[in-house]
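Hi everyone,

Forwarding the result from last night's run.
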Amino acid sequence: MSEHTLHFKPAEGFRARSKAVVDNPFLRQSFRGAMDFLMSKRAAQFPDPEELESLRSLGEAIRQYNLAKLPDLLVQLEANLTRNGVKVHWAETPDEANAIILGIIQGHGATKMVKGKSMVSEEIELNHAAEAAGIEALESDMGEYIVQLAGEKPSHIIMPAIHKTKEEIARLFAEKVPGVDYTDNVDALIQIGRNVLRRKFQEAEIGLSGVNFAVAETGTLCLVENEGNGRMCTTAPAIHIAITGIEKIVEKLEHIPPLYSLLTRSATGQNISTYFNMISSPRQPGEKDGPEEVHLVLLDNGRSQAYADEQLRKTLQCIRCGACMNHCPVYTRIGGHAYGTTYPGPIGKIISPHMLGLDATAGLTTASSLCGACGEVCPVKIPIPELLVRLRNEAFSAPHANPAMRGQGAGHSALQSAIWRGWAAVYGSPALYRAVSWLGSRLRFLVPRRQGGWTSVRTPLQPAPKRLRDLLKDRN
């Protein structure tokens, strides 16, 4: 398998990037406010806990049913798309996916591509590959357009520019968009972006999009969006290229509505998105719009590794709603860029090791409090904390033959293993635990009176009020 050169290095600088955000009170406050807003919007969409749990169980069942049949569904999807006139391509690695897409573009002599929102295109770093090949690739999702202008990666899979203030966006537009003066009026900024993108929709020969769901029985690509840019990317240019991971497949159209309902309500707190596009073929004779060619690139990039393990396969249930990020106490404090991966937050910590290897992501598996919030809000019930524990074991256990994951044992330390074996021995034996506790109480004088780190700034416990102490004494 060929290696892909990443512009972000998750194994390098995670602590430094995290600390930079934690030390910035303005960023912390911004992330906290944004996440609180998203959590409240989601909660308002699920007022009935029983209805929510019923829908989550249905979503989980649909995803597990389709993953169990994934190899057959991939064959069925390819056959039906081909019958409909869509050209299907298979890519094992990001480099292969980029080569396929650039080959299609160059084969048509095209030089301009306009892109709808696609996290998989971020995953393969298509924009960098296109730029190197002399092809203009412009993001048309407003959030993606903003981070592209800033030369950054998205910090959230649903709201890419959530880390930006309107003042920062105003300065960015004034610096990067020709003929634009500074304004921090949000409506004016949106209109500036729209004016740029409308011209690009007319000029681009290639339109690229992601895929939220691919329906095997009909050969249909489904795309969820709010801005209309996805519809423009898939209809205005002469060539439409869609790219998706191999796990985004359902067998039947009837599987879509429950997942769609869970996705929109969990992601943005909407009952339904503004647009839901269903693409089954190129433009047919007599039709007035639509592309002349449609291509689908199906990407593996480590997904088959996750699929091969019954427990790790649950990672692939994800429908990319971002709810786990919004509720994660770690993501809320450090944001998406600190992770250094395309997919940040809890979902990133369980999917990135399959894409990049544990040698590049071992440290991310421990960037979690294991509070369980991510698993509790996941609309398709991915047991994220359970998977994180499994990945920690894979990353820090001694290397062995036939590992389940690439880079297994990358974080292994003989000293650390010895410490944990000792801890397990103490906690596994009541007698040994009592002996260690007795010894520890006798050696308290060795502990500094004033401890550093978080203990030095924590709020000390206050004695109970005298009235409460008296009440408790009376009850005893």
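The first strand starts at residue 87 and ends at 91.

Cheers,
N.
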